[in-house]
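Schema walk-through. Below, the input block comes first and the output block second. Nothing else is stored per chain. Lengths vary across the set, and this one has 465 residues.
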Amino acid sequence: MTTPPKKISLVEWTERYPLLKREGLREPSYGGPLERHLQDGDVRLRRLRFDNSPAALRLWNFLLTEEDRLAQARAEGKLLVGAMKDLGTVPVMAYSLPNVVAFYPDGAWWIPCVMEMSDKLLAIADSLGIDDSFCPVRAMLGAFLNCEHFPVPDLLISSAGAVCDDFSAIAQRLEHLGYPIVWWELAHRRLPEKAEEGIVLPGGFTAPAEQLQFVKAELERVRKLLEERSGEPLSDARLSEGIRAANRVRGLLRRLREEVFSAPRCPLPALEMLIAEMLAIHFCSDREESVAVLTDLLGEARRRTDAGEGVLPEDAARIFWVNPVADLRAMNLLEECGGRICGTEYLFRHALEKIPEDRPPMEALAAMALSDPMAGPAEDRASRICDEARAFGCEAVIISRIPGASHCAFEGSVIREIVEERLGLPVAEFEVPPISDSLSLAVRTRMEALIETIRERRAHVLHRD
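--- output ---
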């Protein structure tokens, strides 16, 4: 198990797995060879390159078996809650109750990529009038209708208000198809006016205290509903314990990001780091196992850094990446072009912040929801990107536009202008569709040009010194 770190193909993983088993690899119940997921239709795995560690294998198996966990929860009579769009708030409440499991149906937006369109989910959305002028999260409609990717939740809860217009439209279409949704409103965050009391939110944003109380009142409605449907009281004590448990996951992720993004050599690839960050949102339907998976990844990253090892050359260009990619292959492509990820903003940065434990729990959750960068002006989000890019010594920023996403139309330009003005860094902005094979040459060219710019800037600094 002391094989040097590197990225390997699915075929190479097939060869490596029995060797690890003979060396004493111990796996959780959902473990097994990675290639078995091809039988479920996850054929994009053939085109990806993976980290070769047992920790990475555990991460991938955890991700790709979530459907099994949800089916088991349904069989055990647990209440299945479909949380939509808030990205990290309702699941904390739901997992504070026994016999309740929450997940994000929104996650179906990656299915067309992982299954290389064989799922037909986007075609189903097309037939319902939600065409490719909408964000790929429209795949969620098809997943609800064909029931092949997750059980239909017993309860659907969605945020509204300061959320993506595309998602709101898609969720409303879902409700019109006969899937009742309980809506709660997230206020559009703004700065307090002179006469208003202000409050500092997790992550550093400021909002009027009045907005915090409004969001808290909305979440109180959600709390009452969860109590009614679960038959269990969602007391402050239970919420406080749920917040502490969520913070264990978030704390591990923060330490993992710090370890990986600040290391001289990149100890874990961008693809595995993207998947790891996603665990903060709803724990991939198992909060305790998320802790175990992240603990393994953090241990592997630290071991490699202490040994001076990495999966990429030490001179890889340090890139800050904005927005999650619709095609996971793009993460591999960046590293093939000579880059490494040293900072990210995947639309749910607030879900990595520590939820305040020194406030009443409902107020703390309301503050966390209101701290969502997407709930306020694009300038707020750009400021946070600048702060983290500066902290991790990033040399450029990539903004991957999400096809059809309404918030991507102008937000990328705002972020680009602020990054260029405040940090003086080069910025590349391009769109990544769910399957980018036909555009891979164009995307590669943009990445290579950006990395060449970084190298020229390095050479200029060396020459000047």
